Amino acid sequence: MKNYAISRRYAKALMLIGTEDNQAERYQEELEGFVGVLDGEKTFEDLMVNPLFAAEDRKRVLVAVMDKMGLSQIVRSFLVLLFEKRRIDHIRGITDYYKKLVDEFKGIVRADVVSATLLSDDAVEKIRVSLSRMTGKKIILDIKQDEALIGGVVTKVGDIVLDGSIKTQLANMKESLRKGERV
Fold first, then answer.
1. What is the pLDDT of residues 102-119, one digit of tens each?
2. Tell me: the pLDDT tens digits for 132-154?
3. What is the distance between the alpha carbons of residues 180 and 137, in angstroms, rounded to a whole number?
């Protein structure tokens, strides 16, 4: 929980700056790019968080990487602040939360859709339109397949789960039969 609070606090602070100077999306791209470098270069990430190396040496490497990436001054300052406060290891959580804040700012909601079979383009569009009407926002769908569902679709929008899977319907029927209810 503490990590989430840290990520939220730093992401909100950067978002305030991003909305003031209309660069919120750019900062998101730069943070995601930096996380991509960490993902691609595990030794770089290890170096950033390893106290066995001198802090000034680690900071020099961080600055060199940021120079190579061509990051904006705001994101550079932000990453240096995280480094100096020993919070650079929270960058993934900060980036994830920042992405949610940018989406919220732009009126976008991300939804996860899991289906038993591959959905047609028409079905995907119907789900998108329906969720858009329900939320009043633009919807970006992340579609996955899970053959364990047997059939149907499970949709998650924020904290709301809409479970229309056959697997859940069968489980509900089974529970009703156990309780002696009419199905």
1. 999 998 988 899 988 888
2. 898 888 998 899 988 877 777 88
3. 42
**SS3 category, 65:** helix
* Gyration radius of the chain over CA positions: 22
Write 100-103 long-range contacts (CB < 8 A, 24+). Answer: 101/11, 101/12, 101/15, 101/24, 102/15, 102/18, 102/24, 102/25, 102/28, 103/140
In this structure, how many other beta carbons lie within 10 angstroms of the beta carbon of residue 74?
16
The C-alpha atoms of residue 103 and residue 122 are separated, in whole angstroms, by 25
Task: Write the single-letter amino acid at 183.
Answer: V
Q: Vertex 25, ends 160 and 99: CA angle to 5°?
A: 30
Which residues of the chain, if any, have pLDDT below 50?
none
